[in-house]
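Weekly modeling sync, notes
Attendees: AB, CL, MP (scribe)

Item 1: holo prediction request
CL wants a bound-state model with fe (iii) ion before deciding which constructs to order. AB pointed out that an apo prediction alone won't tell us much about the pocket. Agreed to run with the ligand included and paste results into these notes for async review.

Input as submitted:
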Amino acid sequence: MSSLLVDNIGELVTNGTGEGPLGIRRDAAVLVEEGRVVWVGPSAYAPAADRRLDAGGAAVLPGFVDSHAHLVFAGDRAAEFAARMAGEPYTGGGIRTTVGATRAATDDELRATVRRLRGEALRQGTTTMEIKSGYGLTVADEARSLRIAAESSTETTFLGAHVVPAEYADRPDDYVELVCGPMLAAAAPYAKWVDVFCEQGAFDVDHARAILAAGQAAGLGVRIHANQLGPGPGVQLGVELDAASVDHCTHLSDADVDALAGTAHSDGSGTRTVATLLPGAEFSTRSPYPDARRLLDAGVTVALATDCNPGSSYTSSMAFCVALAVREMRMTPAEAVWAATAGGARALRRDDIGVLAPGARADLVVLDAPSYLHLAYRPGVPLIHQVMRNGVTP
Ligand code: NIG
Ligand code: FE
């Protein structure tokens, strides 16, 4: 069994035991065996190992956990982005443009896009990435989207209810029946989660409840796109169905915040349903950012994710989302880095990632910087010096 010691770490973010909310340790080392962390402690007391990775006094943190991304698609909507920047509003209607291109693409074209974006994210420090379907919207296209997604991630999500496709525009009930029946049956073998875009212009609360409940009955965990474009019932539906995460949360009522806060664990470790904020979407649609402070002050567990997709947020950079959350959403750098690592893990109901402690997966990043603070302090700068996933540096 070969062991690897990452040592000479100037600042180690553990999200476990250590200083402050990030569990920081100074002059630290991490011992890795068989893809797992087996020891964390002071560099001076580090056990012997077969190999050594010298962090050069830099900061090391858990790999980013991007819990919300739509990578299985074809085509490009740069012109839509340019039109928005010239004043057009975002309505979500462009999803159908991507559906057309995705249906027309070959498996290999879709696979190449997923791999390209997954690789792009990995090089930027994302060691876990959730991948949704949702641009196929036929039984065969949703199943193949998830089959391809599952080649690159175990965190796969069936989003057959992304939008009602054009051919069902005047009979949405029939489409919901298709999603709950044959489409779910074909998708479920490749999916871990079910998701619905619950929003005006997409799926109403009754349709969303039916689809999520069907997914749950098929053994999938629940997540939901909620309250992105306006206020609505999505967040409270997510809480009702014990969703791991309610995503976007841009327009929240007091009752929504209370409902999320009401899912708090009794041991003070935060909420069972996580609010996942996706500031790349507000950036790229020039919309008001979600009120992260209100959620955090109410005790709600917050995650940050990219929402990487060709329409509303074509970024794979978690560091960019951290910088936006700090600058535009008044999260502290520590809150934002926690949300992008441990928060994402919580949104996926995982305790083996997002943390560097014995037993955790050896997923980490070495920064080209002395502190995690630089992720927000030096926006747009490629600070990810080295990435380790499962104990391996790809
Ligand atoms: O999360 N909100 C729905 N789905 C995506 C947008 C997808 C698109 O515009 O293609 C989102 O923002
Ligand atoms: Fe999304």
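Recorded for review: The first strand starts at residue 3 and ends at 13.
Action items: CL to compare against the apo run; MP to circulate these notes.
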